């Protein structure tokens, strides 16, 4: 265990080698799901947590892709969702009649993902699917369909591989469990 300010970074939940293997497997599943594209697949990276996963996934895919970015806010610097979702950055390209794949780092309550999926649907894509590296089903409040799932994880706060707490610890190569003081949430 390592102390970072008031946080205790615990053991490794998912090692970087396991993450990279699963990213390769997900890329193969996604390649197979889009056998004939008229245009490149649009990967929508949900900032900031999905940036590393999106980059690795884009490199592992064999089909042509374009990258786009959206940003929402529901946690702020807290360790639990505020319950409301705000769109901070919308897409800057047209999605109409395009095949779109939302790339999420983690889905827990499902509120942000449900919000984003509904919002992106208003852009009238040809198809809209979702890949999530992590799925924390025990926290689900809103149902969301995950088309491509990396790992199911227990109800623990995690950091690393893009996931953060108060913008810290995104750069850890593995995914770690964090012990959060009661007052931090």
Report strand %: 25-35%
Strand order of the largest sheet: 5-4-3-6-7-8
Name of the top-level CATH class: Alpha Beta
Number of strands: 10
Protein architecture, described:
The chain has 3 helices and 10 strands. Helix 2 links the parallel strand 3 and strand 4. 21% of the residues lie in helices and 33% in strands. The chain has one domain: Rossmann fold (3-Layer(aba) Sandwich), CATH 3.40.50. The longest helix is centred in the N-terminal third of the chain and has 18 residues. Strands 5-4-3-6-7-8 form a 6-stranded mixed sheet, sandwiched between helices. A 4-stranded antiparallel sheet has the order 1-2-10-9. It has 185 residues and is of the alpha/beta class.
Notable traits:
single chain, 185 residues, alpha/beta, Rossmann fold, six-stranded mixed β-sheet, four-stranded antiparallel β-sheet, 3 helices, 10 strands
Short description:
Helices cover 21% and strands 33% of the residues.
Please write out the topology:
Blueprint: E1 2-4, E2 7-14, H1 16-33, E3 41-47, H2 51-60, E4 65-73, E5 86-89, E6 99-107, H3 111-121, E7 127-135, E8 148-152, E9 158-159, E10 175-179
Parallel strand pairs: 3-4, 3-6, 6-7, 7-8
Antiparallel strand pairs: 1-2, 2-10, 4-5, 9-10
């Amino acid at each position: 265990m390592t102390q970072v300010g008031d946080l205790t970074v615990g053991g490794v939940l998912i090692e970087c080698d396991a993450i990279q293997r699963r990213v390769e497997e997900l890329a193969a599943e996604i390649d197979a799901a889009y056998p004939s594209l008229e245009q490149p697949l649009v990967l929508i990276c949900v900032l900031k947590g999905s940036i590393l996963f999106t980059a690795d996934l884009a490199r592992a895919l064999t089909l042509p892709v374009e990258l786009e970015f959206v940003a929402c806010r529901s946690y702020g610097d807290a360790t639990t969702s505020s319950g409301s979702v705000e769109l901070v950055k919308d897409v800057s390209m047209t999605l109409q009649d395009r095949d779109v794949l939302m790339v999420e780092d983690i889905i827990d309550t499902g509120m942000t993902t449900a919000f984003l999926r509904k919002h992106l649907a208003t852009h009238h894509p040809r198809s809209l699917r979702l890949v999530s590296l992590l799925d924390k089903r025990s926290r689900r409040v809103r149902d969301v369909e995950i088309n491509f799932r990396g790992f199911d994880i227990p109800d623990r706060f995690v950091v690393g591989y893009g996931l953060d707490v108060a913008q810290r610890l995104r750069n850890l190569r593995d995914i770690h469990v964090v012990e959060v003081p009661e007052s931090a949430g």
